[in-house]
Every structure is written in structure tokens, then in C-alpha cells.
Amino acid sequence: MLDSATRELIKSTVPVLKQHGVTLTRHFYARMFAHNPELKPMFNQTSQQAGRQQQALAMAVLAYAENIDQPQVLQPVLNLVANKHVSLGIRAEHYPIVGKHLLASIQEVLGDAASAALISAWAAAYGQLSDILIAQENQIYLHSANQNGGWSGWRSFKVEKTVLESDEIMSLYLTPADGGRVPNYRPGQYISVKVQIPAMGMSQVRQYSLSTAPGKSFLRISVKREVGNAVNPDGMVSNVLHDQTVVGSLIEVAPPMGNYFLHEDRDTPVVLISAGVGITPKLAMLEHLIETNSTRSIVFIHACRHGGVHAFKQQVKQLSANHPSVNNVVYYEVPREQDLPDQDYQYTGRLQMEQIAPMVVQAHADYYVCGPVPFMQEQINHLKMLGVDAGKIHAEAFGSGGIAA
Length: 405
What we know:
This protein has twelve helices and twelve strands.
């Protein structure tokens, strides 16, 4: 535990962090990449260019400073960060590098305001945070390596099959190139894949939810092709996966990770809410509930633009038809002429929770939400307005935004 004088110094920087936090983190990343360019492939360069990682780090540093007296408040966030770090291959030896550039950036950005005492306080605070994360990450690495079919770091997987699930989403079926087993995982978790990006001259890592239930001889991810260009580089990895991945291709994969998953220690009703490619972890949850003969009632709610981008439509329809405990509800924002009401979708327009409240609001139900951040924030707010306990809402967003709240 940090002493009171150190904590007071950290808290004294809160106003500065609120005003100049992004300037600090932008300087930090530029400095670190200039001195340690070998670390660039570990960071999402698309999010770097868009400023999302700088913003996310600034918010994290601010939250740490604001809660320095009670760091346990940040434990859920630290769990998320530890899982993400392990999925990227970040290890204990990287922390001193990051710490060096972070402290130097504080000194260089704040100038005369960064006294020796303040830098010393932040060095102590960073050391404490590093120790917490390293300990958590070591436990995750150990668990991943020691389970059946598990490993630590990167492992080569072969693309056994590709399936086009919609106009935008393609599934990749991955099996270990070494002929070994794949580990078990919790429905809702993700894997990281490392892909060489010729246009960038480096590899990049992305996380994709596992889109089928555990217990198979393969891992499956379902990747949405993002539209990117020189100005907006989103889609660098997804386009390579769509255009350059063929059966037999080898992809480097990190073990399944993530603390967003189906809670199986209860028999409460389950409400699965998704939009777009957010359907992928929900499908894994739905399949797992059915394959394990769960008696929990299930509501599967999905929203998308139209039938052309509606992935896994037939699969979910069939699962719903064969299992009376499953209710399947689909919203098409702008249906096409060939999209059939009551067969392909039930509602037109954006998802409106109030419209289906009698089905959605169930006593003691658990709610799992996934999709674009604005969609998630809207649905979470509506669920709360309908009287759903915030503790029963489980949500995670893709990308640098992390969890929507």
C-alpha cells in the first residue's frame, strides 16, 4: 500500500489529468514507439491513428489517480486489462519499458510542474500497479498453459475451412498445426490472432470472439470485413483475413481469454442481446446452453441492417424451432424487398426494448449485451429504465473502447 503522502501527490494530479491526459498519453506512445519500435506490433495501430488508445489510456490513468485510496474499486477493470495483456503476449519484462517512457512523458509534458517528489510518487504508484497486473497475468499464463490442449504465448493454427455467413462476415475454422488438442473455454471469450499486414510492414493483433460452443476439435472465429482506406485504416486486419486467407493458411493464435462469458453457476433465465457482428459470442452462448441440455429459458435478440448482413440466420432459427425454451427476436433496421416479415425478422427499425418488454424483463434474468458501443449504451440504459438490476447486465464491446457502461 502506498503511503499517504504518495497518495496525496497522485491525487493532486487529477485536475491536470482531466485537462491534459490525452496530450500526455499521445506523447507517451510517440516516445515509446520512437525508442522501442519493436513494441509497435503489440499495439493496434489503427486505434493509434484514430486516437482511441490514447483516449482509453488517459481515462485509465485518470481512474487510477482518482481511486488511489481504494484501488480495489478498479479490480474489474484490472481483470479486463490482465486478460487483454495476456492475449497480446505482454509479459513482466515489458513493464519497465512502459514505466520508463510514462514517467519521462509526465516530466516532459508537465515541465516545471513535475517535481522530483511527484515523479517519485508516480514511480511508486506505477510500481504498485505493475506488481498487481504482473501477478494476475502470471496466473492467467499458468492456467492457459496447464489445461488440456492449452498453451502460453502464440501457437500456429491451420485454416481448415472458411464459410461466408453474410455479405460482411466470414467464419474461419482453425485447428492446431501441431495436431494437438484445443483447450476448453467459456462461451463469450475471445482469441487473439496475429496477422502480417503488408501495407504496414508489420504484424498486427486483433481479438475475435469464439463463435461456436466449446468442446469441438477446432476454434471458430467469424470476422466482419471492415471498410477501410488510407484516411480511415479500420479494416486492415479483417480485409487481409477475408482476401488472403485460404484453406491451409497458418495463423498465429493466443489462448482463449476474456472475463466476459456466460455464467453457468446459476439457473436464471438468459437474455442474449446483440447487434451486427456482436452476434458471435451470443451464438456460442446459445449453442452451449442447448448442447449442455440447460433448462434455462433463453431469449435471443438480434438487430442488424437487413437480411444481407444477418449472419447465422438459419442456424439460430433452427435452434429456436427445435428448442421451445428459446425465443428468437430479430429487428431489421431497413429491410430489403426480399426480406420476409415473420420469417426473416419480426420488427422493423432499431431495437426498442420497451416494445418487447414483457418478453425481456424476467425475474432474476441475466442479460448479455454485445455490439457497437452506442448500441450497447442505449440498450443498457433502456434495460435499467425497465427496472433491470445493473448487476445482472453483462456487457463488452469490441476494440479499444472496452466495456460499455
